Amino acid sequence: MNTIYVICPDSNVPYGGVKQLYRHADALNNRGLDAFILHQEAGFRCTWFQNHTRVTSQCDMEARLRQSDYLVFPEIHGPYITEYQPGVRKVIFNQNVHYTFSKHPIGNHCRHTPYLHPDVVATIVVSEHDEAYLRQVFPGVNVLRIHYGLDHTLFNGRQLKQDQIAFMTRKLPGDVVQVINMLKFRGALDGFELVEIDNKTEQEVAAALGNAQFFLSFSDRESFGLPPAEAMACGCVVIGYDGSGGREFLRAPYAYPVEAANLLQFSQTAERVINLYRQQPERVREQGRQASAFVLQQYSMQREEDDIVAAWEMILKGAWTGSRHQLAASLQ
C-alpha cells in the first residue's frame, strides 16, 4: 500500500491551516488509506485542537520511505518542494494561493516552479478562488478542489447570543484599530462588549463565537477564510472583508461583505447592521441562524472527507493523466 506523508510545521501556535493538514491525514486513514502527519521533531504533536492523528517524524519516515509513497507539501515551501527526496511523487496542498510564489524570484529569467515539475502529480486547493487562480497561471496542471468542513459539534448556533462583537487581529491589525474607533466615536458600540479572539484553542474560539452576535471579518488575501466561516456557523452576523477566497460564502443574504480596505464602507455597514439589531433584534438573530444553516450544509465534515478521499483515489489511480476538466467534474 502507498503511504501518504502530509508535511506539517512543528508549531503549536493556533493556525487553521495546520488543523486542516491533520484533518487531511485523518480523512485518508478513516477510509482505509495509509497516511501520517510528518513533523520534523520526533514526538511532536499539535495540541491546541483535539486529535488522535497518526504522526511520525522526518527521521522515521526517511528510514522507510519508498518510491511508491507520496509526500504532501504545504504551499509555503515554495520553489524548494521538489528538492526534497527527488523522484518521490509529490502533491501540493495549497491552502492559500497568495503564497504560491513566495520565495520565487522577480524577473523573467527563471521559470522554475514545483507546479510544473514531473514529481508533482497534483495540486489540491480549498476554494473556487484558488482553483481559478491556479488554472489561470498553470493551465495544464492537475488541480483538485476540496471543501473545508466545519465541525458542527463545536461551531453551531445553539448558544444564547450576547450583545458582543467578536473580531481577530492576526490579519490587518491597523484596519481593526481604524474600524473599531470609527464605530466607537459615533456611539455605535454603546452597550456592546468587544471580544478579541487571539491565540485561543479551538474550543475557546468556538465558545467566543457562540456567544457573539456579530463578527467583524478582517480577512486579507485568504484562500477560504475559516474564521468568518466558523463565525457564521456559530450564528454570528458577519460583516467585513471576504479576503477573496471567502467570496463564495461571505455574501448576501447571509452576511455583509465589504470591499477590501474600504474602511468607510466597513464602518458604515457595521453601524447600519448594529442599529438594525437595536430596532429589530429577532430579525438579525434569524439572519444569523440562516447563515449557520447555510455554511454547515455547504461545508460539512462529511463533504470534506468525501472530497479528500475522491481526490486521492484519482491521484492513486493515475487519473491525473486524463483531462483536467474531467478531473474537476468528478469532484463536483
Automatic annotation (TrEMBL):
The keyword Transferase applies. The keyword NAD does not apply. This is Glycosyl transferase family 1 domain-containing protein. SUPFAM superfamilies: UDP-Glycosyltransferase/glycogen phosphorylase. GO terms for biological process: lipopolysaccharide biosynthetic process. Residues 201-290 form the Glycosyl transferase family domain. Keywords: Transferase. GO terms for molecular function: glycosyltransferase activity. InterPro entries: Glyco_trans_1. It comes from the Bacteria. Pfam families: Glycos_transf_1.
